[in-house]
């Protein structure tokens, strides 16, 4: 028995159904593709956003780890000790700091130092001096020889009260009292009586006890280096009104290394100015 073929209308309907079904499938596929693509795009954007945020945080100073830095303490300067001007007496004639001048006579005026010795150096007048002065003279003369090839001698040192009477009277007799008072101390006011003062001359002799001694190699070396050994050029050329005496580049006074060093550091050249005591050219 032969089958009846579907009519043309049925065939046409079946084709439309097939087309509609295919279109539906295609629409579903497209929707799926679009959804997957959108999801992937969104995830990538989020990843990019997260990465950018991480970069920003990494670059932000607040987000960077703070390295451990130890603060360097500011050094506190050590205060320089103040020189004690009252450490030794400037009134006691036995003190190496005693200040003797026309306004400040020794007390007693007939003072005799307790430890007079004769140093082992050339000594023209054969006069003694205090032990500390002698030790410093020996060291200073040795340094002048080793450092500069210079030779020195002691011209005069300790003079007793009675010896100073003779020296002063001789100067007055030869030159008058007004002149004598400019270069020779009256008895009882002389530094030589303390055993701490030394008149130094060159070897061979050159400008001994004369202002030109200051221009000799020996005089120049002493002026520059005596402080190292505790000596003070006692009567500078520019301090006549202070010390009361004319320039004596040969007259050195022992005051000890501590005081001599402090005066050198401070740039003060007279005991009167350093200790703030009277001096001057006139006797009271």
CATH domain class name of the largest domain:
Alpha Beta
What oligomeric state best describes the polypeptide chains here? Answer: single chain
Major sheet summary line: 4 strands, antiparallel
Strand content: 5-15%
Number of strands: 6
N-to-C series of helices and strands: HEEHEHHEHEHEHH
Mean pLDDT: 86
Strand order, biggest sheet? 3-4-6-5
What sort of overall outline do the alpha carbons produce when their principal axes are compared?
Answer: rod-shaped
Task: Please explain how this structure is put together.
This protein has 284 residues and is α+β, with helices and mostly antiparallel strands. The chain folds into two domains: 7-58; 116-275, Muramoyl-pentapeptide Carboxypeptidase, domain 2 (2-Layer Sandwich). 42% of the residues lie in helices and 10% in strands. It has eight helices and six strands. It has helices spanning 8-59, 131-148, 161-175, 177-183, 217-225, 240-243, 257-266, 271-275, and strands spanning 116-117, 129-130, 151-156, 197-203, 231-235, 248-254. The strands form two sheets. Strands 3-4-6-5 form a four-stranded antiparallel β-sheet. α3 crosses α4. The longest helix has 52 residues, at 8-59. The chain is rod-shaped, with a radius of gyration of 53 Å. 27% of the residues are buried. The model is unreliable at 42-46 (pLDDT under 50).
């Amino acid at each position: 028995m032969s089958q009846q073929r579907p009519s043309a209308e049925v065939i046409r309907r079946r084709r439309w159904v097939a087309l509609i079904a295919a279109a539906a499938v295609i629409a579903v596929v497209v929707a799926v593709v679009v959804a997957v693509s959108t999801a992937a795009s969104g995830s990538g954007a989020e990843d990019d956003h997260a990465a950018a945020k991480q970069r920003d945080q990494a670059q932000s100073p607040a987000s960077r780890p703070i390295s451990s830095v130890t603060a360097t303490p500011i050094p506190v300067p050590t205060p320089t000790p103040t020189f004690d001007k009252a450490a030794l007496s400037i009134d006691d004639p036995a003190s190496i700091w005693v200040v003797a001048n026309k306004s400040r006579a020794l007390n007693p005026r007939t003072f005799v130092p307790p430890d007079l010795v004769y140093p082992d150096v050339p000594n023209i007048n054969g006069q003694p001096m205090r032990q500390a002065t002698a030790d410093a003279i020996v060291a200073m003369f040795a340094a002048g020889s080793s450092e500069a090839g210079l030779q020195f001698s002691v011209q005069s040192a300790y003079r007793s009260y009675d010896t100073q009477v003779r020296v002063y009277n001789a100067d007055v007799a030869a030159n008058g009292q007004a002149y004598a008072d400019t270069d020779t101390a009256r008895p009882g006011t002389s530094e030589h009586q303390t055993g701490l003062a030394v008149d130094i001359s060159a070897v061979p002799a050159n400008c001994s006890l004369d202002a030109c001694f200051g221009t000799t190699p020996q005089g120049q070396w002493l002026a520059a280096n005596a402080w190292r050994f505790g000596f003070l050029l006692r009567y500078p050329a520019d301090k006549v009104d202070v010390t009361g005496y004319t320039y004596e580049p040969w007259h050195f006074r022992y005051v000890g290394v501590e005081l001599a060093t402090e005066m050198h550091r401070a740039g003060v050249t007279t005991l009167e100015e350093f200790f703030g005591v009277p001096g001057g050219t006139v006797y009271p």
